[in-house]
Structures are given as structure tokens and as C-alpha cells.
């Protein structure tokens, strides 16, 4: 590997004067650690430039994860980049902020006693779900469960639940979609529950279309089952997105610890918690919901700390940033941000419906997420063509098919997040119109070409 611009000994050129790009290595290392050092300015520029070809995160309407924070929050995160969340002894104030956030979430979600509800920050909702799932499994064992444990959930669950079932050896009972039912409902959940069910997972809301699952109805059905001498099955709410939306926009909706059957709730701090990745939270309704044997009390640097995470070391910066957001926004601020997202989503949904070719599955009035399919008459292009067309305009709008038993259904989904404004939505809409018109014209030209060729055949 040469360093073309590195001044040769005796050349007389001061290394600091070498023009940046002339100092690049002959090839960027990709398989082997380079032998020698590189000037930090040059290294920074080169890595920065490697990343230029990543997409623009603000135009990525596929992700639920935060892509914009105030500069103050970004500065705060940079200033605590060195803090390790697990060193609670060394960074007791970071640990204190974590505990404050847990109590605030327990309170927001109506835990009977928010000061004693156990909870933890995690790398994301996935880790939070693993922990909640483990607690459910251990509680089932404690109830005397001896068969093969199963967990009941909609076929629309996020992949982390497949992982949980696989890694922790629990049978995943995925309730298929059916007709226009795109998520779990009480009746179909109940059909899959038996004495070996460790828990039912209800999602607020579904990643496939942004809809809320009917948590209260699912709990009521399980209440009746238990009252009729059936198994007494706890519910975990996967509120990766919705647990930071519903408390502000749908305060009357019963989905949280107000329902006695809800044992635990997770959310992604880095989704509608409005923090950059990676941050998740899990909160248990009360100490009984978290089996004591899962909690580690380790003597660390001279003090005792309780942990129940999968990882040990983890950045403290996202926790500080979460506390910043809670302090900065409060309930009013969160309500304003989420309401604005919902307004952008619902208006965009209405405008997309007006375009003609699309039919709404959801219109952004639960999670600020909309899913659309093409009208049945439209067969000359697919949602995948529309997605590819939007990509040419810089937008990432994913197209995908639904899980069993609606794999026939292909949709486009738009996730509206903080920072996706009405004006960006207008720009998207304009580009969507352009893409659809172009796809229509392509049909015209194909038809004309077909007519030409059939004319050529018959004319011979
Ligand atoms: C995003 C998501 C997850 C996974 O969350 P991460 O924070 O990305 O680990 C789990 N469940 C649902 C419903 C989600 O939307």
C-alpha cells in the first residue's frame, strides 16, 4: 500500500502541508489491518467520504428509527460518548438518569407503583423483548409448566420475536392473517392458547401497517379464559413504536398496565422516544413480574448493582439523550411532536388515496404510518415498481408482501417521523405522481409496440 502524497525523506515538504487527497492510501484497506498509521485529518476525510454513498436518512421512509435530534442533544451525546452504562459505580449520575427514565415510563404506562416497577434500558426493543420473553418463560416454569412452552402472537410480529422463540427454545405460535384482519385479535389468539402458553404478545402497533392490536380485547378474552378455570396467561405489549405514541395521542386507549393482565411493556427509545440509536426500554408491572433469579446483583467496583440485561457494557449516551428529551419536551412537547407526525401521515394518506391507483390499508391515524396497495385493476405495474421509481428520486419507500396467510398482498409503507414535514410530504407526493404517470405511459408504449408487432405479423 503506497501513500502517494507522503513526503519522502529529504523532500523538504512538511507533512502538515500535504494536500489531503494526495495522501490517500493506494487502496482503502478492506481485509487486512494496515501496517502503518495515517494522518488523522486524512483518515477522517476518507471514512467520511466512504459514507457519502449511504442513503440520506431523512428521506428514508422505511425506518422507524430517529434520524433527527436537536443539536443540543447531539452535543450532549458526543460529550458522554465515553460513558459505559454498566459502570454504575463510576458513572452514578448516568445510572440515576436511567432510573429516572424507567420511573417516568412506568408512570406514563400506569404501573401500579411506578417507583418499584423494575425496568432497564437496553440496546433496543429486541433486547427488551428477549428479557420480557425470558421473564414470561420463567414464570410459566414457576407456575408448574412442564411441557413444551409456546408463545402466542400475530404472524405480523417483528423478527425479534422469531429470534426470541428460536434462541430461548419456545414454540412460536404465529397466528396467521386472514382476509382483512392484518394483526392479532382476541378470538384468534385464544384459539392458540393452552396450558403451555408462556404469554401472548400484543403489538402496539404492527410494523406491517402501523395498526394497533386490540390489547384490551385480547386481555379481556384471557381474563374470561382464566375465570373459566383455563390457563392464566400473561400479556406482554410490544410497544416498540406505539408505547411512545398512544400515551400522548390516545390517552383513553386501554393498552398498558391499566390492564391487570399486562405484565411487561417494551419500547424503542430510538423510535418515537425520539433518541438516536441504540436505545430500548423494558418495564415490568411490578417486582412479581420479573423472576428474581433473572436479576444479577454483582459487586462492581465496590458497590452492588442489579442488572438484567443481556449485554454488559453499553453506551450511556443514548440514556442521557432520552432524559434530555423527557426534560426538554415533557408531556406537552411529546404530544405536539407525535400529533404533528400523525397530522402529516393522515394528510399524506388522504392525498395518496386521491392520486387514483392506490387503496389505503391504514391511514396514519394509529401509528403515524400508512400502508397502501394498488387497486385490483392495476396489473401493468406493481408496488415494487413504484418503490424503485421513488428510489430514483431519492426516497426510500419499501414495498413488501404480507406474511401468512396474506402473502398475496403487496404494499408500500411510509413511516412518518419527527422531521418529516408537510412540505417534505408534498415533495414525496409530487414525485409519487410523477412515478405513477411514467409507469402508466410505459404501459401505453408497450401496448403500442405490441400493436405494431401484431400489425407486422398480420400484414405479412
Ligand atoms: C422495531 C421493532 C422491534 C425491534 O426494535 P429494535 O429497537 O430495532 O430492536 C420490535 N418490535 C416492533 C413492533 C418494532 O416495531
Provide structural commentary:
This protein is of the alpha/beta class and 460 residues long. The protein folds into three domains: 1-54, no CATH class; 71-329, Aspartate Aminotransferase, domain 2 (3-Layer(aba) Sandwich), CATH 3.40.640; 338-456, Aspartate Aminotransferase, domain 1. The chain has eleven helices and 13 strands. The protein has helices at 40-50, 71-79, 92-108, 125-142, 159-167, 186-192, 215-227, 246-249, 317-355, 383-392, 422-458, and strands spanning 119-122, 150-154, 171-175, 197-203, 235-238, 262-268, 280-284, 296-300, 303-307, 358-363, 369-374, 399-401, 410-415. The strands form three sheets. The protein has a seven-stranded mixed beta sheet, sandwiched between helices. Strand 8 and strand 9 form a beta hairpin. The model is unreliable at 1-5 (pLDDT under 50). Residues 64, 124-126, 158, 160, 203, 207, 238, 240-241, 268, 280 line the site of pyridoxal-5'-phosphate.
Amino acid at each position: 500500500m503506497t501513500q502517494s502524497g507522503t513526503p519522502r525523506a529529504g523532500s523538504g515538504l512538511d507533512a502538515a502541508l500535504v494536500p489531503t487527497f494526495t495522501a490517500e492510501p493506494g487502496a482503502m484497506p478492506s481485509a487486512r489491518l494496515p501496517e502503518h498509521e495515517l494522518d488523522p485529518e486524512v483518515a477522517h476525510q476518507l471514512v467520511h467520504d466512504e459514507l457519502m454513498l449511504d442513503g440520506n436518512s431523512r428521506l428514508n421512509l422505511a425506518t422507524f428509527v430517529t434520524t433527527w435530534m436537536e443539536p443540543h442533544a447531539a452535543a450532549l451525546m458526543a460529550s458522554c460518548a465515553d460513558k459505559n452504562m454498566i459502570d454504575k459505580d463510576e458513572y452514578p449520575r448516568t445510572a440515576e438518569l436511567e432510573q429516572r427514565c424507567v420511573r417516568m415510563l412506568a408512570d406514563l404506562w400506569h404501573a401500579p407503583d411506578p417507583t418499584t416497577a423494575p425496568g432497564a434500558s437496553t440496546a433496543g426493543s429486541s433486547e427488551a423483548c428477549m428479557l420480557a420473553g425470558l421473564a414470561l418463560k420463567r414464570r410459566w416454569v414457576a407456575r408448574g409448566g412442564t411441557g413444551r412452552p409456546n408463545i402466542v402472537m400475530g404472524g405480523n410480529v417483528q423478527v425479534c420475536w422469531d429470534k426470541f422463540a428460536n434462541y430461548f427454545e419456545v414454540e412460536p405460535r404465529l397466528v396467521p392473517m386472514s382476509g382483512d384482519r392484518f394483526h392479532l385479535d382476541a378470538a384468534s389468539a385464544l384459539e392458540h392458547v393452552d396450558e403451555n402458553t408462556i404469554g401472548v404478545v400484543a403489538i402496539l402497533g404492527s410494523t406491517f401497517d402501523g395498526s394497533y392490536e386490540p390489547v384490551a380485547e385480547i386481555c379481556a378474552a384471557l381474563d374470561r379464559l382464566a375465570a373459566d378455570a383455563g390457563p392464566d396467561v400473561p400479556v406482554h405489549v410490544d410497544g416498540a413504536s406505539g408505547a411512545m405514541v398512544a400515551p400522548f395521542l390516545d390517552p383513553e386507549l386501554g393498552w398498558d398496565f391499566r390492564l391487570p393482565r399486562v405484565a411487561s411493556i417494551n419500547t424503542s427509545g430510538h423510535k418515537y422516544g425520539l433518541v438516536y440509536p441504540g436505545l430500548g426500554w423494558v418495564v415490568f408491572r411490578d417486582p412479581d413480574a420479573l423472576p428474581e433469579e433473572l436479576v444479577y446483583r454483582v459487586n462492581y467496583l465496590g458497590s452492588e448493582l442489579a442488572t438484567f440485561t443481556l449485554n454488559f457494557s453499553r453506551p450511556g449516551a443514548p440514556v442521557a439523550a432520552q432524559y434530555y428529551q423527557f426534560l426538554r419536551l415533557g408531556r406537552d412537547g411529546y404530544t405536539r411532536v407525535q400529533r404533528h407526525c400523525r397530522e402529516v401521515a393522515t394528510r399524506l394518506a388522504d392525498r395518496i388515496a386521491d392520486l387514483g391507483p392506490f387503496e389505503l390499508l391504514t391511514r396514519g391515524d394509529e401509528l403515524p404510518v400508512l400502508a397502501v396497495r394498488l387497486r385490483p385493476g392495476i396489473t401493468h405495474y406493481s408496488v415494487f415498481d413504484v418503490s424503485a421509481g421513488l428510489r430514483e428520486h431519492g426516497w426510500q419507500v419499501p414495498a413488501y408482501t404480507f406474511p401468512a396467510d396474506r402473502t398475496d398482498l403487496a404494499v408500500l409503507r411510509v413511516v412518518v417521523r419527527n422531521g418529516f414535514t408537510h412540505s417534505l410530504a408534498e415533495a414525496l407526493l409530487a414525485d409519487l405522481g410523477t412515478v405513477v404517470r411514467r409507469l402508466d405511459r410505459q404501459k401505453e408504449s408497450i401496448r403500442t409496440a405490441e400493436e405494431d408487432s401484431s400489425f407486422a405479423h398480420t400484414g405479412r
